[in-house]
Amino acid sequence: MTQTITEDELRRVVKAYSDMLLRVAMTRVPTPADAEDVVQDVFLRLLTHAPRFRDGEHEKAWLLRTTLNRSRDLYRLRRDDAPLEEAANAAVETPDYGPLLSAVRSLPEAYSAVIHLYYYEGYSIKEIARLLALPVPTVGTRLARGRDRLREMLKEEELV
Q: How many CA within 13 A on the CB side of residue 88?
């Protein structure tokens, strides 16, 4: 069952979560403008669907999952429209995220999401499991495998 969300509630959610959601989206999409589009879409979905949340953690988990899902959708769209996007984005500069964040961004989503939430957002493995609705051992495994892949990538680039 859905409910209506008030303007004050929407303002609270935007203020509380927009920076975090933008950082998460920026790890999954190619440009900051795309990340901003993702976050706007997430808040629009919140406004139009107005899901009922059990508590603040449930709300945060829904926002994070929706951001990751929308980022994946947008990435697929951009990849499928690559020739058109290359022409449209020729003048747009892609920001330099630095070698480590660029390496994190290049990991498969299963790994980059948990690494980003663990290292950049400061969540524990148990919190990430709850946020992403995954078993705790799965999050631990993804974190370990993601670290291993990062280590290998950075060795290849001679950054470690």
A: 8
Amino acid sitting at position 139? V
Q: State pTM to two decimals.
A: 0.70
Site of tokens 């879409």 = 41
Look at residue 2 and give its three-state secondary structure: strand
What average pLDDT does range 113-141 have in this prediction? Answer: 91
* Phi/psi at 2 (5° precision): -105, 165
Cross-strand bridge partners of residue 102: none
- Cβ 63 vs Cβ 13: under 8 Å: yes
**At what angle are helices 32-49 and 7-26 packed, to 10 degrees?**
150
Encoded tokens for 19: 């920076």
CA–CA separation, 115 vs 41, rounded Å?
24
